[in-house]
Amino acid sequence: MTDAVLAAQQGDEAAFQALFRAVQPVLLRYLTVLVGEDAEDVASEAWLQISRDLGSFSGDFDGFRGWVSTIGRNRAMDLLRRRRRRPAVSVPVEYLHDRAATEDTEGAALATMGTGAALALISLLPRDQAEAVLLRVVMDLDADSAARVLGKRSGAVRMASHRGLRKLAKLLDQRAAEAAGSGGIPGEPGGSGWSEKTSAPGVTPTTAPTLKGTK
Question: Considering all CA atoms of the chain, what is the largest pairwise distance in Å, rounded to the nearest integer?
């Protein structure tokens, strides 16, 4: 894919399409957690900037993925600022698929989660931890790349990701215990930890969990 980056910079449309197909799905998942149903619009704005500034990019495919994440996040933050103090809208759980992480701690924590429960639990994390987990696992960025996206030191991102994953593991244990007592599946409709009205005040009620504190 690094060859595709270089070819796209030379104006190869097929190479650019290959990059889009490789990155767009995971970018949409990340943006959906940040801005909900506006993710596709934000992604479109991001790709317009990417196509315009591609010639100035320097790096391999991993670097390209981090660069795209930065642009996407900046566009998402612009939208959230425009929303001012409005909470983020609800997020359909199918946008987050289980992915094996490169680090054992991440893989161990997420391997035991179902799709619906994963997003429901991530939505309970503090924003810095939630974004660190999403960038490391969903966008598959290393700590240095994720740190550049968030404007933090890589050590801080590793710590936030580690703390978030430890908290996810504790929440998972807690909900498993609750499910054993109620007979339901934690984080799924009808199971413990699920509410038909998980949206914040002023937001249309939905059965989908949301990421809090993204304003």
Answer: 60
How many other β-carbons are positioned within 10 Å of the β-carbon of residue 58? 10
Q: 10 Å Cβ neighbour count for 205?
A: 10
Q: Rounded CA gap, 122 and 127, in Å?
A: 9
Residue by residue, DSSP assigns 87-135 as PPPP--GGG------SSHHHHHHHHT--HHHHHHHHTTS-HHHHHHHII
Tell the burial category of 201 from Cβ atoms under 10 Å away from its Cβ (0-12, 13-18, 19+). Answer: exposed
Element (H, E) at 15: helix 13-35
**pLDDT one-digit tens code per residue, 75-96:** 998 888 887 655 555 555 455 4
pLDDT in tens, 160-192: 888 888 888 887 778 777 777 765 544 444 444
Contact between 123 and 88 under an 8 Å Cβ cutoff? The reply is: no
> What pTM, to 2 d.p., does this model score?
0.62
* Token representation of residue 3: 């060859």
> Measured between alpha carbons, how far is 191 from 187 in angstroms, rounded to an integer?
6
Residues 75, 45 contacting (CB under 8 angstroms): yes
